[in-house]
Each structure stands twice: as C-alpha cells, then as structure tokens.
C-alpha cells in the first residue's frame, strides 16, 4: 500500500512547508485526521515536495496512496484519482481490496477493471447511491487506516471533474478521529476567476481541520543552492545569473535552463518556455522523440500495454527508446507498468509541438486500440481520443457509454456533459446507430435534473419536441412530453406542465394497456391535482392503477398512489393519507422507484407541516432528505424540496442555528440549489437583524423565475430589513414585484401567500403612518384595499373542498390585527382598546401552533395594545414572553422593538422620540399640543406616552415627569 516515488532532483528550501505537512501526518498518527491544500504555480515544486512528504510518511509507518487528476478536456472519467488509488491497491494488495469490497461493495464501481470498455458491471441492486459511494470511500479509507495510518495524496485537482471535487469535499467534512491525512494539490496560476475549483477551495478552507500551504517561488539563496546542486561543473557567473533571473525562483524552470545550458552554448538557450522544454529532446534518438510524442498524446500518463499497441515500434526498439527517455529525466517509470512525464508542462509542450496531422493520427491510433479492446481503457478515454481524431461515429458511441458509466457511479454532472456532446454528434441518419435519439434526450434531461439544472432539461425537451416531424410515432412524442410535464411541474411552470401532460394523455388514450400508458395517465392525474381538479385527478389516478395492475406492473403507477393519498388528505382524512404515503414509499423503495419514494416521503413531511404538526414534519423531512441523499437525488425534485422544507420547519420551530446549518450550501451544492437554500438563510439572518438580506435577495433575481419559492421565502426578511432601514417605499416596491412574479408563474392572482404579503404590506403602512401623519387617510385607504385582497384570497385561492390551513389562518389573523393597528396609529376610525387587544390576542393564539418568532412578534404588538388599554401588568407579561424568545433566538429587531419593556427593571432604553415626548410631557403639554409640536397624530402620541409610563414603571404623567427629573432623563 505504499506509493512512494523516488527522484534524484534535490529538494532545496521548503523546510517550513515540509514541517507543516508532516505535522498533519503526525497528527493523523494520533487519530487527529486532517488535510492540507497545497497550492503553487506550475513548476514551482509541488510534486517534488509531495514526493518528500510521502517518503517522510512512509518512514513514520504510514501507508501512502496517490491519485492523479488528468485533463480530459470537456468531460472526463468521474472519480479518476480514486479509481487510480483503489486500482493500484487492488494490483498490489488484492487480499486487502477483497476485504474492502466485502464491507463496502460500492467501491467495486470505482475499480478500473469494472470501468473499462466491455467490462461486466458490478452486481448492484438498483442504481448506485451517490451518498452510498461517498460513504463507501470514506469507510474504505477509514478501514485501511486501522491497520496502519494512511496518507492519501490527490494531485492536480485543477483538472478534477465535478464529482471528484464533490467527493474530496465530502471527505474533508468527515475528517474526525481517523488515522488519516489527506493532501490535495492544485496549480494556483490555473485558477482564473471562473475556474470551477475556486469555490470549493474557499469552502474547504473554512474547515478547521484543513490547512492551506502555498508554495512560493524559491528565494535568491535557495535558487542558487539548487543551481549548484544541479551543475556538475560550474558555469560562468554571468550565465548562472542569467539562468537564475530567467527562472524566477521556479524550480522546474531552473532545472530545464540548467539542462539546456549544459548541452552547449548557454547563450543559445531559447527565449520561449516551450522551446526551452523541447531543447531537452534534441539530443535524443528519433525513436525516443517519437515515443515522447506518443506519450504526450495519451496525456501525462500511459500504461506500457497501451504504449506498446500505439507506438508502432518493435519491443526492443521501444524499450531502448523508453530507457533513453528515463535516463534523460524526460519521463519516469514508477514501477507499476506505466510511464509519465516528469512534469505536465513538458508533456504540454511536446503535445503542442505536434503538427495537426500528427495529433490526429496518434489520437486515432489510441482510439483504435481502445475500441478494439486491444488494451484496457474507459469509454471516457475512447471518447476523448475519437473526438480529437475526428472519428465522430466512434466518439458518439463512446460519449453515450461514458454518460451511462457516469450515471452508474452517481456522477450526473459528468453524465450530462458526455450526453450533450453525444447529442451534438448524433448521426444524421438514425439508422447508422443503435442508440435511440429520444431515449438519449430523455436520459440527458434526467442527468440535467439530477444536477439541479431543470431549465436546461426543459429547453432540451422543448427543442426536441419542436424538431419532431408531424408524422412522428405517437409514443416517441409522448416519451418527450412525459418528462417535460414532470419537470415543469417541479419548477412551478404549471401551465406548460398541464399542456404537456394533456397532450401526452390524448396521444396514449386509444393505445392498448401498457406500463408506459399507466405512467402517462398517472402524471396527468398528478398535474390535475396540482391545478385544483380533484375529481379529475382521482378518476385518472385510479385508472392508472387499474392499467398497471392489468399489465402486471403495478410499480408503473406508483405516482398515482401518491396522488390518491394527497386527495385523501384534502378530503379531510389526514391520518389515512399519511398511511397511504408511508405504504407508497415502501412500495416505491421495494420497486427501486427512487423518484416516487422521495416524492412520497417529502409529501408526508409537507402534509404534517400544513397541519401544524411541526415536530412530526421535522422527523419526516429529515428522513426524506436522508433517503434523497442515499438515492443520489438530493438535488432533484422533492429531494432538494425536502431539505429546504426541513430548514423552514426548523426555522418555524425556533431552531434557528439548526435551520442555518441545514440551509448551508457548500462546494458540492449546485448553484440553483444553493440559491434556494440561501432564501432560508435570509430568514435566519434577517430575524437576527442583518439588514443586508434585502440587497442579497435583490442579487438573486436571476433565480426567481426558476425557483419561485426563493422570492416567496426571502421576501419577508427583506421587507423587514427595509422597515428597519426606514425605506418603506423600497419594501412596498419589492412586495409588488414578487407578487407580479408569482401571479405570472401561478397564472392567477389568488395564491395563498398573498395573505402573508398583504400583512407585510400593512405592517409597512403602520410604520409610515407614524412618520407621515398627514398621509393617514391615504394610508388607511390603502390598508382597506389590502384587507379586502387578503379576505378575497382566503375565499378564492383555495380549490373547492379545501380549507385554510393553520398557517393561513394565522396570517389572516395577523392581517386583520395589523389593519386595526394601522387605524389605531392613524386615529382614523380606530378600534376600541378592547377590540385592539382582542385581535392581537387572537393572532398570538393563532401562531401558537408552533411558529415561535411570529407568535413572539404578535405578543410584542399585544403588549403595546394592553399597555394602551391601561393593563400594564398584562402588557409586561406579554413583553417578557416575547423577550425570552428574542433572547434565545438572538432576534435583535424584536428586542429593539420591546426596548426596556424586555427588562422592566430600570428606566433605560427610551427611544429618542420617547425622550423628546417625555421632555414636553414634563412641561405639562397635552397630547394635542404634543401632536402639533411634533407633527404626529394624537394616537401616536398616546402610544409613546403609554410606552414611557411602562418603561419608567409609573402610572401617571405626573409620576413620569417626577421620575424623569429625579433620574436626570431630561438632561
């Protein structure tokens, strides 16, 4: 299990970096697992330093495993470095790998022998879970580290594929007490602003178990030391100085400049780096130079078997050429039947020096050897060589196989890349291939959906349908309409989902019973349910189940069973609905229908949430999110929804830290999903007083049309931020914009969130009326309109037979309470003190189902109403209940609103306006005089006076004036 290289190049300097890395190794020996991110420019000496670290780890009794990332171009082999690690281990220690496979069978999917063209797939029940694969890699490395501590090195991650980056990120977050050290290297000069590794590096660096080591160029003294070590005989001083100046502290450049200068006249060293590197090949034989070119075309590494098949040289001549390259330090041979260039820069220079025709011929030779299975290779390798050799037929077939292989190891991002390139290469004559174009399009859309790129899938399916000839077979058109409707329903494009489902339904209506027909009708039932057609939904859901049973494939209509459960719940039987959903989930799990299982488990949690059963909702959603991860559907429909709904449930329950953690995005999170999760994060941040959430929501506008839940969730904290910033107009504008967006998406003005939006808008009017008393009549008139809109929504926003849920009831009560507060503050047809208290008491009670922060805010308003009614003791009690919640959650805006009412002991925390009112009150001003002098309404003055009396703990204006003079509050 030792992958310890040997090199004759001396290591100069680097003592600090070496110490830091060996410190991580030493920590791992004492069960403090950790990781190092090693960065540096190309040629600065990363690989040489890693060689030394590997040697040091070996001397300390560590097993050393090394994997490399390779530049495959647009799409490569997922998890390549880990395939290399486990593949090498299988060759050197088959007994050890056999034990690993017994305990972690998913590792078999990564072994090179199972990823080669024509290889037999690893026996597996159903599709491979991405989470299961990641857990298997972690488990395997942990198990290996029990016999001896382990150092795992992954080099050149600037070339890593998406799935490899995700797996590395997963391992970094799971480092605890294993005897395991992980070192990840990358070229810092390759990380341009849009490089896909930039975000993961930033994310990984926040992990306390991860340390960063940056390898800077050698300083002048170190460069001179290296130069002296490399030179058998000293060069003239001016020549040595020229070499040092040109190398700029880069160890590899120094070596190459020394080698070039040692070959003749130092002044003849080429000015360009590529030419400099190629000078090394000039003294070699023709065969050696040709073999170097062949290796360069393969990439940085090539197996002996593949090189033999492609080089076109007899064995003796090939061996002689290889020996010549090794002796010249052009390539290295680590002893595992493969060869690689000492440095990627040299391989790149040799490749770039090839004439176009030479490149095409060499790539074609590699493609032929791989295609004929003369040597072992992967579909991704074959696809790359075939593409570069312009063999488009072979490239197409290889891209399809590479996409399938990527999906089999839960790497949908790479599958999507391969499939999309395959679609570009699809033969003009469909008869020229056995691959069905419709199947390929649907599989590509599935890969896009699993990668959380739903709009990409929708665009692909729309175009495919538009390109179909009018006389296309019925089933072909329906096969494209089915996923289009499904995905559109997920992203709330309900109208398009309905049109696609209806068209597919009509196409199969007269077709004989089949599993496909059952799926189409089941989807049509689900769309009917989503669009508020319960009778139609029930009829066709039952028909789908009947057809599925008739053809002996009941699992084909698993979706219909879930729809029937939802209908049962809305009919007023939530217990029976929950039981049906549980049964549907189990059936789907047994049938291997991952989509149906995740949907049913998500809906089970969502139904608990709608009923106000938040603890049960939390438990169900936690399991739904867990299963989605295990099934590789954490970013697909309902899997992602389960995670976000879980975070919302935690927020509602007042578990804000847990909600923030659930909603935290990392380097493994697709961009669209990360934006969706951030909307819940805005609620936590906004609740704690971070007013930048308003700007952040505006910055996520590009995601609003894709994920309407994002603005729907993020609106409230943004509006509250605008209120705190005294920018009510901006808050009203935002509510109007989000409302217009939702009306467009839902194709109706009556959607249930509008009740909450009306309450938020009413709250802004209350804020304005205090500072704009002259606009009181206008603001109250607008408030009346909002109240009417809220009531109309409660009546018209629900399909027939449905009733308002607990959250809807609570927000409607809040809207009515804010309406009374607005009239009370404006002194326009104000409610009586008793009416005002009663409406806020109803609101506080309505949120008592478990919405902790909203009940606390309702109690803040109830406290003010009670105080204005002269019920000071009751007001203080409500203020204390609200303050306890505010302190526990860190809800600073709520505590600021309470002021010293949160702590009735003492007279601190009078606001500036209250201090101003107190000063005039002490001079004997009446409420009317105060209102005229301060340009506010008498009702607002009354509120301030009530707050002052409560904060000072007194019962009259005279007592308040006396306390103010005694305590120096007027100074």
Range of helix content: 55-70%
The main β sheet shows up as: 5 strands, parallel
| Proportion in β-strands | under 5%
Give the radius of gyration: 35 Å
Contiguous runs where pLDDT drops below 50 for at least 5 residues: none
Mean pLDDT: 86
What oligomeric arrangement do these chains adopt?
single chain
Strand order, largest beta sheet: 2-3-4-1-5
Can you count the beta strands?
8
Tags for this entry?
971 residues; mainly alpha; five-stranded parallel β-sheet; three-stranded antiparallel β-sheet; 46 helices; 8 strands
Task: Write up this protein.
The chain is mainly alpha-helical. Strands 2-3-4-1-5 form a five-stranded parallel beta sheet, with helices on both faces. The protein has a three-stranded antiparallel beta sheet with strand order 6-8-7. Helix 10 crosses helix 11 (273-279). The longest helix is centred in the C-terminal third of the chain and has 21 residues, at 776-796. It is globular. The termini are far apart.
Draw up the topology in text.
Layout: H1 15-29, E1 34-40, H2 46-59, E2 63-68, H3 80-92, H4 94-103, H5 130-147, E3 150-155, H6 162-173, E4 180-187, H7 198-205, E5 210-215, H8 220-230, H9 237-247, H10 251-262, H11 273-279, H12 286-298, E6 301-303, H13 304-311, H14 315-327, E7 331-332, E8 338-341, H15 344-353, H16 356-371, H17 379-388, H18 392-408, H19 412-425, H20 437-450, H21 454-467, H22 474-490, H23 494-508, H24 515-530, H25 534-550, H26 558-570, H27 574-591, H28 594-610, H29 614-630, H30 639-652, H31 656-662, H32 671-687, H33 693-699, H34 709-724, H35 728-746, H36 753-771, H37 776-796, H38 806-826, H39 833-846, H40 852-868, H41 872-889, H42 892-898, H43 912-922, H44 927-934, H45 938-952, H46 957-966
Parallel strand pairs: 1-4, 1-5, 2-3, 3-4
Antiparallel strand pairs: 6-8, 7-8
Helix pairs in contact: 1-2, 3-4, 4-5, 8-10, 9-10, 10-11, 11-15, 12-14, 12-15, 16-17, 17-18, 18-19, 19-20, 20-21, 20-22, 21-22, 22-23, 22-24, 23-24, 24-25, 24-26, 25-26, 26-27, 26-28, 27-28, 28-29, 28-30, 29-30, 30-31, 30-32, 31-32, 32-34, 33-34, 34-35, 34-36, 35-36, 36-37, 36-38, 37-38, 38-39, ...
